Amino acid sequence: MNVLLSIKPKYVYSIIDGNKKYEFRKQIFSRKMAVNLVFIYASSPIKKVVGFFTIEKIIESSPEKLWCQLSQSSGMSEKDFFDYFTGKEIGYAIKIKNFHPFNKQIDPHEVIKNFRPPQSYCYIENMDAFKPFME
Q1: Is residue 86 part of a domain?
Q2: Which pTM value belongs to this model?
Q3: CA 97, CA 21: separation in Å to the nearest integer?
């Protein structure tokens, strides 16, 4: 199984630059499903799938502990981090491994029937739309 994550463009650029080594989430996809690849959808105004990565590990902890452990690799300001996790007791940090940017960003409306941008994430069962861009 594969996942498409919606990420704000400023954080996408930080992933591309290598400054953001963890993607933080308030909720996480089912761990019962083995997620192979994570595709990155850069939200508005870009609205394109820009690349993919594999998951090295997922850390579940309080936002305070996540910040203490991972702030240097967060690619975020402390304010943005804690604003994102406001009211949450648990957060998740996805360790980004082997990020691969696409040479040509993908307009998902052109390759996925009835595409709707995910609020947080969605599962991708059919990889056929992405395979030509992965070579």
Answers
A1: yes
A2: 0.92
A3: 8
Q: Is 40 left (phi over 0), alpha (psi -120 to 50) or beta?
A: beta
| Angle CA 52–116–98, to nearest 5 | 5
Residue 64: CA count within 13 A, CB half-sphere: 2
- Identify the pLDDT of residue 135: 65
* pLDDT for position 33: 74
Terminal CA-CA length for the chain: 19
At 60, which CATH number? 2.30.130.30
Report d(CA 108, CA 14) in Å as an integer. 22
- What the block records as the tokens of 44 is 């508005």
Per-residue pLDDT of 67-85, as tens digits, reads 999 999 999 999 999 999 9
Q: Is there a domain that residue 134 lies in?
A: no
Instruction: Examine residue 133 and state whether it is found in any structural domain, yes or no.
Output: no
- Residue located via tokens 């709707």: 116
The structural domain count of the chain equals 1
| pLDDT exceeds 90 at position 112 | no
Looking at the domain assignment, is residue 109 inside a domain? yes
